[in-house]
Design brief:
It comes from Rubinisphaera italica. The protein folds into two domains: 4-123, Arc Repressor Mutant, subunit A, CATH 1.10.10.2910; 158-249, Beta-Lactamase (2-Layer Sandwich). The protein is globular, with a radius of gyration of 19 Å. Helix content is 48%, strand content 22%. By secondary structure, the chain is α+β, with helices and mostly antiparallel strands. The chain has helices at residues 4-22, 31-37, 71-94, 105-118, 121-130, 135-141, 147-153, 187-199, 232-249; strands at residues 40-44, 52-57, 60-65, 162-167, 170-176, 203-206, 210-219, 222-231.
């Protein structure tokens, strides 16, 4: 049976091939431009129930998209349909058949590809490192992706991270990449989040073990906070490597 890392590595390779084929040169990915460069038509359909669907008419392939006020959702829907279309390349890469890979695996592969098409590994992680994973900076650079997707993509690194999404004061998602995390906040996380939530501002807290960064993504009628937790020793190692790199270049 194939591990998650194998699927993700295959998605890395296939997404890079797709982007190269479309002539991606860096920065934010416009999903509509990407899709047309790959030979697909885009049709906007207000009547359809789903956000996106893929149809083929003869040799022409079309992606039908339901309009949305949030442009990030449209970009995601388009890239997800591209992921559905190219998912078979990922299965081929790992040597698997869709019918023997478990229920929902094709959908998960499409999600892997969509995330990597909107936030290409060849540019995203370098930018994340250079800005010390500042969510506002990354959102400015990769504006077609949502804050949540950007934060989730940061988990696709070797360094340990725990991501928490809080909506209207309630934890709606909590996920770690390389270690198990409790479903509820640790005391330092709780304190950092509470202050950020009440004061409507980004906040950072560090103790002897953990570094916490909380970003307040607040709108007039909705409060969301994104909390990223990482071990202090890994953060300090990253900073030492950064300082060494700067010293070597001078």
């Amino acid at each position: 049976m194939w591990g998650l890392s194998e699927w993700m590595s295959a998605a890395d390779v296939v997404s890079r091939q797709i982007l190269d084929r479309a002539g991606y040169a860096g920065g934010a990915v416009d999903a509509a431009v990407l899709t047309r460069r790959l030979g697909f038509d885009i049709v906007y359909d207000r009547q359809q129930a789903s956000r996106g669907r893929l149809k083929q008419f003869g040799r022409r392939r079309s992606i039908f998209i339901k309009p949305d006020q949030r442009s990030e959702r449209i970009h995601w829907a388009i890239c997800h349909e591209l992921g559905e279309c190219f998912a078979h390349h990922v299965f081929q890469y790992v040597g698997a058949q869709p019918d023997e890979s478990g229920p929902g695996m094709r959908e998960q592969v499409a999600n892997f590809l969509a995330a990597r098409l909107l936030l290409p590994g060849q540019t995203f992680f370098e930018k994340a490192h250079n800005c010390r994973e500042s969510l506002p900076v990354l959102k400015t650079c990769f504006h077609t992706a949502s804050h949540e997707l950007i934060a989730l993509r940061l988990l696709d690194q070797e360094a340990s991270r725990c991501l928490t999404i809080v909506d209207q004061g309630r934890i709606t998602k909590r996920r770690a990449n390389h270690f198990a995390c409790e479903r509820s906040f640790l005391p330092i996380e709780q304190k950092c989040w509470q202050t950020s939530h009440e004061q409507c501002r980004d906040l950072e807290r560090t103790d002897e073990d953990l570094r916490i960064h909380c970003w307040a993504i607040h709108e007039p009628h909705w409060k969301r906070e994104i909390v990223m937790t990482m071990p202090v020793n890994e953060y300090q190692s990253d900073r030492r490597a950064e300082i060494h790199s700067l010293e070597s270049s001078t």
